[in-house]
UniProtKB/TrEMBL annotation:
The keyword Phosphoprotein applies. The gene is GAD2. GO terms for biological process: gamma-aminobutyrate shunt; gamma-aminobutyric acid biosynthetic process. Belongs to the group II decarboxylase family. Homodimer. This is Glutamate decarboxylase 2. GO terms for molecular function: glutamate decarboxylase activity; pyridoxal phosphate binding. Its EC number is 4.1.1.15. PANTHER family: GLUTAMATE DECARBOXYLASE 2 (PTHR45677:SF11), GLUTAMATE DECARBOXYLASE-RELATED (PTHR45677). It is found in: Cytoplasm, Cytosol; Cytoplasmic vesicle; Golgi apparatus membrane; Presynaptic cell membrane. Keywords: Cell membrane, Cell projection, Cytoplasm, Cytoplasmic vesicle, Decarboxylase, Golgi apparatus, Lipoprotein, Lyase, Membrane, Neurotransmitter biosynthesis, Palmitate, Phosphoprotein, Pyridoxal phosphate, Synapse. Its main location: cytoplasm. PROSITE patterns: DDC_GAD_HDC_YDC.
Length: 585
């Protein structure tokens, strides 16, 4: 594939910072925004600079009961440049929006009101005085609102109410005190990119219908491969619907590499295959084996040490054992950043074993891949450059809006050979441009969402150094939490030593259990502590953090930090809140 070149498409290491706006600049910005955006400019000024900077609303909405006729547009410009008219949504439906004749005013008014709802939600997401969650039980929400689909259309007034209600009960995943999942935060540039992507509403299978997006995917995947350490960013890759699918792609390609005949003849034509992964690896490895007809029994789990890292000697032992049984080892899936402990498997030792036995080495870096952006922490992935394939989810540690997952492959052309079906209605061979940019035939999907633009635009806005600072901050916050609780009364760490990633795993021990002997009764009671505290967190809406059992360990809290909005004060709040909610247990 020919290179699109540098300049506009390429990534800089650092972007210049804008100077802080003076009040005069803010007012000037408001005036420009009002001139070109009408109601949207007014709303932005009110939200960003306060009501004192907000001019008189030019298009206040009529009262719901007033059936005022819409003024006709006399503007000959398309789209209409007239001021926002008074629009009574109670008498309007989606058929009154574009492409309806003379639908410009209604459409602009409606979309401005949707943006108003979104902006209010965005601002509240960062307000620590607001709830992370307004929790209701499923039966309560089902009874309180009518969610059913009907034959007759709702009015636009009802549609706007649906939008407000949906966001009212949505989890504020961008809230500084939301720590529940690996994907948290709300990036403003990423959000803008997501809006633009939806407006473009195209498919990623050919250059002819997604020219810029296809080029951005090429450039971004090459940059990611460079950061893995493959010379010149060589290889291939694709953005897929999440890390589970990326891992399945790796398994699919590894099988094809060893037995290309499987594509036409199926599993019956090849020997019994086995894959290896750690007992702490993501469940998607087994799920992929099930989906591909390999079978979950053919995924052999390798023992881990006390920190959750794969033990290389056990891997080699199990490979030899499988070969003696007549099975064919075809894949080792190492993990860079396990879901619960945040452990990094010893990739160099695993690479040596894979080379020795000629086995495809995959690295599931869905959670830990982002550390490649950090000069301070990328050593934890030493050896990743020897992998045949890597999963990397920018929607986790890098804070890109969901979803954004990449599968990177070291050997160029292999993915295309594995998956292509030569659909002639899409991939005509006599097109007038370079056909290597028609990337759809190497994907399992036909329809493929544009996931790259969010990552590319954020990378342009932050530079690599911006992502580095963001990731370093999250890891520093995790170490801060660890240092706060490791010797604090009422806390026990699940494993010794500071965390490698932002995962901090611990038990909170209520006062009633602190003097109990460590026996079965104590474990039985301790198992109930985290679920009760988590339920209370959700009912109060103050914060959210995950918990789970693992092996012989009863329920413990797994704190993860990937939200750049979080601060030391939010960590302190979490500790105080756990103690407040668990003091009577």
């Amino acid at each position: 594939m020919a290179s699109p070149g540098s300049g506009f498409w390429s990534f800089g290491a650092e972007e210049g910072s804008a100077a802080a706006e003076s009040p005069g600049t803010a007012r000037a910005w408001c005036q420009v925004a009002q001139k070109f955006t009408g109601g949207i400019g007014n709303k932005l000024c009110a939200l960003l600079y306060g009501d004192t900077e907000k001019p008189v609303e030019t298009g206040a909405r009529a009262a719901p009961g007033a059936a005022e006729p819409r003024p006709a547009c006399t503007c000959d410009k398309k789209p209409c440049g007239c001021q926002k008219a008074e629009v009574n949504y109670a008498f309007l439906h989606s058929t009154d929006l574009l492409p309806a004749c003379n639908g410009e005013i209604t459409t602009m008014s409606f979309l401005q009101d949707v943006v108003d709802i979104l902006l209010q939600y965005v601002v509240k997401s960062f307000d620590r005085s607001t709830k992370v969650i307004d929790f209701h039980y499923p039966n309560e929400l089902l009874q309180e609102y009518n969610w059913e689909l009907a034959d007759q259309p709702q009015t636009l007034e009802e549609i706007l109410l649906n939008c407000r209600t949906t966001l009212k009960y949505a989890i504020k995943t961008g809230h500084p005190r939301y720590f529940n999942q690996l994907s948290t935060g709300l990036d403003m540039v990423g959000l803008a990119a997501d809006w633009l992507t939806s407006a473009a509403n195209t498919n990623m299978f050919t250059y002819e219908i997604a020219p810029v997006f296809v080029l951005l995917e090429y450039v971004t995947l090459r940059k990611m491969r460079e950061m893995i350490g493959w010379p010149g960013g060589c290889g291939d890759g694709i953005f897929s619907p999440g890390g589970a699918i990326s891992n399945m792609y790796a398994m699919l390609i590894a099988r094809f590499k060893m037995f290309p005949e499987v594509k036409e003849k199926g599993m019956a034509a090849i020997p019994r295959l086995v894959a290896f992964t750690s007992e702490h690896s993501h469940f998607s490895v087994k799920k992929g084996a099930a989906a591909l007809g390999i079978g979950t029994d053919s995924v052999i789990l390798i023992r881990c040490d006390e920190r959750g890292k794969m033990i290389p000697s056990d891997l080699e032992r199990r490979i030899l054992e499988a070969k003696q049984k007549g099975f064919v080892p075809f894949l080792v899936s190492a993990t860079a950043g396990t879901t619960v402990y945040g452990a990094f498997d010893p990739l160099i030792a695993i690479a040596d074993i894979c080379k020795k036995y000629k086995i495809w080495m995959h690295v599931d870096g869905a959670w830990g891949g982002g550390l490649l952006m950090s000069r301070k922490h990328k050593w934890k992935l030493n050896g990743v450059e020897r992998a045949n394939s890597v999963t990397w989810n920018p929607h986790k540690m890098m804070g890109v809006p969901l979803q954004c997952s990449a599968l990177l492959v070291r050997e160029e052309g292999l993915m295309q050979s594995c998956n292509q079906m030569h659909a002639s209605y899409l991939f005509q061979q006599d097109k007038h441009y370079d056909l290597s940019y028609d990337t759809g035939d190497k994907a399992l999907q036909c329809g493929r969402h544009v996931d790259v633009f969010k990552l590319w635009l954020m990378w342009r806005a932050k530079g690599t150094t911006g992502f580095e600072a963001q990731i370093d901050k999250c890891l520093e916050l995790a170490e801060y939490l660890y240092n706060k609780i490791k010797n604090r009364e009422g806390y026990e760490m699940v494993f010794d030593g500071k965390p490698q990633h932002t995962n901090v795993c611990f038990w909170y021990i209520p006062l009633s259990l602190r003097s109990m002997e460590d026996n079965e009764e104590r474990m039985s009671r301790l198992m109930k502590v985290a679920p009760v505290i988590k339920a209370r967190m959700m009912e109060y809406g103050t914060t959210m953090v995950s918990y789970q059992p693992l092996g012989d360990k009863v329920n413990f809290f797994r704190m993860v930090i990937s939200n750049p909005a979080a601060t030391h004060q939010d960590i302190d709040f979490l500790i105080d809140e756990i103690e407040r909610l668990g003091q009577d247990l």
